[in-house]
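Case study 2.
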Amino acid sequence: MNTLRQFWQLAAPYWRSRHNWLAWLLLLAILGMGLILVQMNVWLNFWNKDFYDALGALDTPRIYPLLGRYCLLISAAVVVAVALDWVRKLLILRWREAMTRQLVDAWLGERAFYRLGLYGEPDNPDQRIAEDVNLLVTDSIDLLRSLVSAVAKLLSFVFILWQLSSDLTLPWGDSQLVVPGYLLWFALGYALFGAVLTHWIGSELTRLNVQQQQREADLRSTLRHQREHAEQIALYGGEPWARRHVADDFAGIAANWYRMMQRERNLGLFSTSYNYINSMVPLFAALPAFLSKSLTLGGLMQVNSAFMQVSNALSWFVRAYDELARWSASVQRLHQFVSSLEAARSLAPQPAPAPGGASGVQLQQLQVCYPDGRPMLQALSQHVAAGRWVRLDGPSGVGKSTLIRTLAGIWPYYRGEHCTQTDVLILPQQPYLFRASLAQLLSYPALQPWPEAPLRHALVALGLAAWTERLHEVADWGRVLSGGEQQRVSLLRAMLQQPALLILDEATNQLDDASAQACLRALRDALPDSTVLAVTHQPVLHTLFDEEIKLVRMES
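Prediction:
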């Protein structure tokens, strides 16, 4: 029941929305077509009796029309089955799209994706959003459809089986025995036996599926990380370590896979035997009645068909056990992820905007802390006027970068207050680069590239004139650009965006002194009204700043 409650918490935002009425229509269409297929199986069940009775009596005038009826039934069943599959895939796509968007919004909203890493991020959020959502959506629809069909089969054929077996007489010594609905009771007992034994054999599969999804995601994460840091690994000659890391991850996959294989082998031995025996059980169960001539050949085939349908319906749990284990694992992983996101979003308030339309930065007894609550810096009370360039000064490791993260609203551990402009841009030491056209890269985070004229002007101003003819070139720029060129790209973004508050965190430390000074002078000319806070250990740049704020470590 806990898994069902977690599932509903995940699914409710989509299915309770008034805007998703089409999803309900698609779901009803899927279930309706499933019920139509069940009804066709009922008709085929009666066809079996008529056909085999006609075949046993060599009644040729009845056989050929029955063959024509069979072709019509099968043709209609094929059309319904294909249409059901198409509608099913459409609903899967729509639900997956909505759920993916919902999780991505929650992950990126209020900087939860960053805060998750501060107190224990669930493993592989990317895998949970991409793969677990797909598994959850697909398995949920398929399990519901198969369960409704199983219930419909049970309700349809249980009466048929009861009627067929209630009139049968069984030989019992010198007399005859009548057991009302004995084939139905036999089917119920056989299915219950199968369900109990299946759960006993496969009870560990849910936990093993959770572990397998996690370890598969760990391997993908390792390979992606090595690709992203290929240059560093190559320069260090770290290929043996990289191989060992991949081998260790795969060893975890293999160990868990073997445990799953053993459980699935045991479950497979039982379920496969169960399914094979299932096809013969009704014949053996009805054989005494057939031999006593209280059941015709057509009746025997009808009993066989009805028994199989009832047994399959009652054995839904046996047949769906692997899928249920995988579905349960996806529910648990996604619920844990969503719970972590909710905790991350509530971790700390966002910084307050400057009151009354005031400009600049206002710090009131602001004290940056460690995650355990210990103060990192002595409290700061400072007002930085608009348009001022201020350098944050202090020894290495004092907490300058953490103060910057606090002002950016992503470091939640602090006391006091800080009021900043709402238009804030922070340039870290390592710029964010990705595969795209150069124009898109320079314009990040804008969704559309800037016009070519300002892009070319900014490239020339920051010493990247050689790249002006490559604006439409698509490349993995983290591998193409040098460290200094990457930092020039970062400064160019600030020049284009014209933020009210710009914070630089060692944003020129990969440039030589002359280049760093030229770039910051060009930036200052381009941003005459912007307030700038900066951390830099390049003495040649100190003269570019109007004032400095001295940061003092809090003594323990």
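The first strand starts at residue 170 and ends at 172.
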